[in-house]
Amino acid sequence: MVLFAIFLGRRVDATLRPQGEWIEVEGERLHYRTLGEGPPIVLVHGLGGNMRNFDYLPLAELARDFRLVLLDRPGSGHSPRSSDARAALGEQARVVAGFLRAMRFDRPPLLVGHSLGGAVSLAVALREPDAVAGLALIAPLTHDVPEPPPAFKALAIRKPRLRRALAYTTAMPASIARGQQVLTFVFAPEPPPRDFPVRGGGLLGLRPQAFYATSTDLTALEHQLAPQEARYGELRLPVHLLYGDGDRVLDWKVHGQALAAKVPQARLQVVPGAGHMLPVTQPQLTAEFLRRAAGDAFCATVRS
């Protein structure tokens, strides 16, 4: 099983090769991709995802007006992670904030976060508010969740040794067997596109190191969000929220409506009949959302 996991992981890496460039930040080697010129927009993916999750967006169209930067978070996609300690929410925020500085943008960017990437983006804005012009949060995780959704419970492995042992033995066959079931849950009530394993980078999640990193991310969230929740009222920058009212991964009222209630300037848009994977299932609507958020963020930057 170990040999099978290693072999298949290498096949996936050979099929979905890195698309972008590399940069060293805070001791982490980060993989990122840049498109276009103009005001910067940095996109951060969610739990178990990677930058390819945003490839359904009309990137070429957006790149005519903005400089798009798609990032693989440490431990995700093609970015390795130096240690499990870097999975903590504050540590992820420190690395992303360091990445924003290292990119030497001519102005603070609009920071876009999907799902767990939303929690990370909020942590960045609270940690270094001057580093970000605004937040565009897509189905973001914003508040503490007592337990993970049913499809993610198999990832809640608290002991690192057991986590690594499973990553290189049973995790990959189990992921292959349950793959369609998990995708159906994550995308529900919308159907997952058939090309998501390749175009959306779904296959990258089958690798042993990806399972290990995703499980580490999930377990590291325990007791991390409550202190952050208490500080949301400190946010002064523009905040835009996009949620599907059918999201089965994160309830839009618990995470979207609750955040909007704590941040007076936040604007919440709820999409009827949509689920959690809005960048994939609602690409044009999401692109329009990003344009509105960018307009607010960069206008606010100019006014300040």
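the 2nd protein, sequnce then structure:
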Amino acid sequence: MTQPPPQREFSDEEIAAIEAEMERLTVDDVLLQTLVTLINLGARKAGLATQPGEEPANRDLEQTRQAIEGARALLPVLEARHGQELAPIKDALARLQMAFVQLSGGTPPPAAPVEEKPEGAGPAQSSGRLWVPGQ
């Protein structure tokens, strides 16, 4: 049994640099990076990162499905702020979803449940973009 590498001690300068980076970092940055990472990881888990003619070593369609679901869950959070800038990312996600369907024999990942809107809801509420407590 191999032992894990010993814990590394950080110097005061390294800790200060990490803290300075955390001050500059925004939640928006992390969400965008996570979205891109999920799509890239999903493509790798689907075996799409192999060379042409090369058989994927460790295809894992369950991991691919999870990556797709995670990316789809993050998109609405980022759309309000980034709109059209997300077009290339949405395209990459759509291609990943198509590859998943082909690789899994035509079974798409389950769509997010569509919530029924109460009658008489205004345009903001019925668009799904307005959070209403208790709904």
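The mean pLDDT is 83. The two ends are 52 Å apart (CA to CA).
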